[in-house]
Amino acid sequence: MASTRRLRSWYRSPYGLLAAFLALTLGPSIGLVWLGWRLLDQDRALEKQRIDERRERAADQVVASLQRTLQASELDLAQRRAPTAGDDALMVEFRASELLAYPSGSLLFRPQASVPQDVLPNVYRQAESYEFQRRDYERAIRAFQPLARSPDPTVRAGALLRIARNQRKAGQLDSALRTYSALTAYDKTSAGGLPAGLVARWARCDLLAGLGRRQDLAKEAADLYGLLQRGHWRLSQAEYDVVAEEAAAWLGVNRDSETPALALAEAVTWLAAQAGRETLDSGRASSVRQNRLVTILWTRGPDGLRALVAGPQYGERKWLPDVERLADTLRVTVALSERTPGAAATSRSASVTGLPWPVLVANRDAKAELEEFAGRRRLLLAALGLLAVVVGAGTYSVARAYARELAVMRLQSEFVSAVSHEFRTPLTSLRQLSETLNEGRPLADERRAAYYQALDRSTNRLEKLVEGLLDFGRMESGAMVYRKQDLDVAALVTSVVDEYRREASDRGRQVTLKAGSDLPLIHADQETLGRAIWNLLDNAEKYSPGCPTIRVDVEREGVGIAIRVQDHGLGIPEAEQRDILRKFVRGTAADTTGIKGTGIGLAMVKHIVDAHGGSLRLESAPGEGSTFSIVLPAGG
Length: 636
Ligand code: ADP
Prior knowledge:
This protein is α+β, with helices and mostly antiparallel strands. The protein contains 19 helices and 17 strands.
């Protein structure tokens, strides 16, 4: 029961209410900021998700587009439309007996050399016995010569090769060179298991190199290297490599220019190996050969396996433009590679898409989009910040206004007790005097007169108090009526000071007055202005105990007239000088010295001065006294 009452009294107390107000405003604002923050987080997650989804959709479209282009190439393949010369691609057909490559000469080497092994070694046995056993090279040459006229070109080529060999051994190098020249005519005929044209040229180069005939060597080697690069002979990779290596060395060039064709030929070898292991119908694959991405599409035609083997340039020209156009419209970048860890990209593996390559799709402007989001976030943060500031400032000003109201309430209750106190003194003396007079005891005439004077003073004081309070009430409500007329200010101040002197002289106070002559008239309400001057005089006396002299000056100040009331009393600290003009506010001087008062005197003075279009000024320092100046505009 008691606790409920305490609770009730808690929220009814002004401070409890203030705390409740703060809790009610600050609580929801903190909640709002928190919610905003959460919202921001969710927004960011959503944004990321949106970007990811866009990329996923783009990846699907890219894959579909690649499928379409590859299908077009596969259709070309089915219709035997081969790439043209100069393309970084070739078409091969695995026939039962041979491997055909289109455009012709585009295949540098083959999975197996298709030149038949040397025929009829027995034909040469007799002649070779002269060469190897007897080392009679002349005889051997003579023995080979009839064979060089054989109707079988293979026998002829074999014989020429052997004649040249013997001529070399016999030191007849020029003859050997000529024989090799003759052998070149047999070009693709097998000579010792290799095409005769190749063997002849290779041997001529070797001889020319040995003879130091550089120019001839350069011509011959260029010829050999050119034929090799044009895929002139059907060589195995090992054969091709050995000859090409030597030819390039004789020419003094590096073999970089071969790289694209080498990559294609290696890919063909790989496909042949696959076809050797299993029956291939149709398919797609890619692999990196010679540091180049080679794509292979194959299909089974009526005559066997057919394949398109394409290097990167072909892909870029044929397959990528469509995808790149699409990528542009979808604002993504496309790479035919595996995902690099950490990068925000969508990867589609070859095994899933059925494409020859993995596809990697990344948002082109993901950063810009996130930046856009960051901009939005900054805006929201700014709005939240502004909200926090507004709520903070609002709460602060309400709390301040409330605290002020509380202070006024406190001042008001102090005012009531101060007023009661003010009333009590004259009332007490009135009661005592009237009791004494009522007793009917005989009193000396002077005594009786003194009593009546005291009665009169107390009644006057009460009257002044009541009038003052009533006037203050009117001023506060704006109902005060000022009867203004043209006045001689010096005369007005003199009459107030004179009246004050009469009262104050009993208390040992002196008031000096110095009024300038020739002052202009002022337009003012005599009674209220007189009260304002009286209040200042009253304060000057109250707050300067032990300093009996008060000085009053009336003088011109600019275009107006200043009435100054100066004392040498307690003075007023700077910090209080503004506040004491507010109603009910009493200064520390009043508090510490216990000087009685209600705190409305200066508020009234301010009201009156304002009503006259003037200003109230104060110069004061603690311990040095104060000067209050009423400055009024002159004008009759
Ligand atoms: P009251 O005198 O009834 O307290 P006022 O409104 O007349 O109320 O004055 C307000 C306060 O200003 C006083 O309480 C006092 O602290 C300060 N004050 C006014 N006049 C003087 C003065 N002449 N010297 C020092 N303090 C003064």
